[in-house]
Every structure is written in structure tokens, then in C-alpha cells.
Automatic annotation (TrEMBL):
<dbReference type="InterPro" id="IPR038019">
    <property type="entry name" value="PRib_AMP_CycHydrolase_sf"/>
</dbReference>
<dbReference type="Pfam" id="PF01502">
    <property type="entry name" value="PRA-CH"/>
</dbReference>
<comment type="pathway">
    <text>Amino-acid biosynthesis; L-histidine biosynthesis; L-histidine from 5-phospho-alpha-D-ribose 1-diphosphate: step 3/9.</text>
</comment>
<feature type="binding site">
    <location>
        <position position="103"/>
    </location>
    <ligand>
        <name>Zn(2+)</name>
    </ligand>
</feature>
<feature type="binding site">
    <location>
        <position position="96"/>
    </location>
    <ligand>
        <name>Zn(2+)</name>
    </ligand>
</feature>
<comment type="subunit">
    <text>Homodimer.</text>
</comment>
<keyword id="KW-0963">Cytoplasm</keyword>
<keyword id="KW-0460">Magnesium</keyword>
<keyword id="KW-0368">Histidine biosynthesis</keyword>
<comment type="function">
    <text>Catalyzes the hydrolysis of the adenine ring of phosphoribosyl-AMP.</text>
</comment>
<dbReference type="InterPro" id="IPR026660">
    <property type="entry name" value="PRA-CH"/>
</dbReference>
<feature type="binding site">
    <location>
        <position position="80"/>
    </location>
    <ligand>
        <name>Zn(2+)</name>
    </ligand>
</feature>
<feature type="binding site">
    <location>
        <position position="79"/>
    </location>
    <ligand>
        <name>Mg(2+)</name>
    </ligand>
</feature>
<keyword id="KW-0378">Hydrolase</keyword>
<dbReference type="GO" id="GO:0004635">
    <property type="term" value="F:phosphoribosyl-AMP cyclohydrolase activity"/>
</dbReference>
<dbReference type="InterPro" id="IPR002496">
    <property type="entry name" value="PRib_AMP_CycHydrolase_dom"/>
</dbReference>
<comment type="similarity">
    <text>Belongs to the PRA-CH family.</text>
</comment>
Amino acid sequence: MTAAELLDTLAFDRDGLIPAIAQQHDSGEVLMLAWMNRAAIDETLATGRVCYWSRSRQSLWRKGETSGQIQRLVEFRVDCDNDCLLLLVDQKGVACHTGRRNCFFTAIRDGEAKTIAEVEVDPAKLYGA
């Protein structure tokens, strides 16, 4: 099966989107979850720089285009049901818009919500706010 044939089997939702999990390729750290449409997938595979679909802006979102915290694609994977993507990436800097390394910084421990990762970069510096 060619890459194009595999992409034709993807199970996009009614809005033409598919969830994509970004994972640091060498450490296994789960960085974030975002959404991709076919155009974002095509651009990512063509350029090697990860591109998502921004549901809030209703436009393509090239990771790091405003913050400089880019993701370079190492490997593109599809799950067994063709309804979720796993992107093995090389993350430059932080992945989360809050200035943390990843977006999964809140954990439930002993019945309490705990922040388990501190801000590494002031979001105002990332986005010029």
C-alpha cells in the first residue's frame, strides 16, 4: 500500500478532522493532542514541519509559527482503526501554549488535581503578548 492509499483510508470526523498525538521521538514523552485535516497532513508530510488544523481559528496552524517552538516530523503513524494519528516529533522548546514542555501537566493524585510540571517559558515571551 502506498502512503497516498493509506491516507485515503483515514477515518476523519464529520468536520474532516482526525486527532493527532505528538510524542517526542527519542524520550517517548507525550507532548500534546491536536487536530489535522487532509491539508495539514499533506503539508506535514511534504515539508517535515508539523502542521495542524486550528479549530478556534479555522485555519492551518504550523506548530511554532508564532512562538518559534516548532515540531519536526520524525515518523508518521496511523492507529489500527485509522481514526487517530501518532506523530513522532523532535520538539524545539516547549510544546504547550502555557509555556510548559507538554500539555499534560495536571494529574489526579490521591483524589486531588495536582500541577506536575512548571512553566518553563513565560507565554507572553512566546507569543509577544
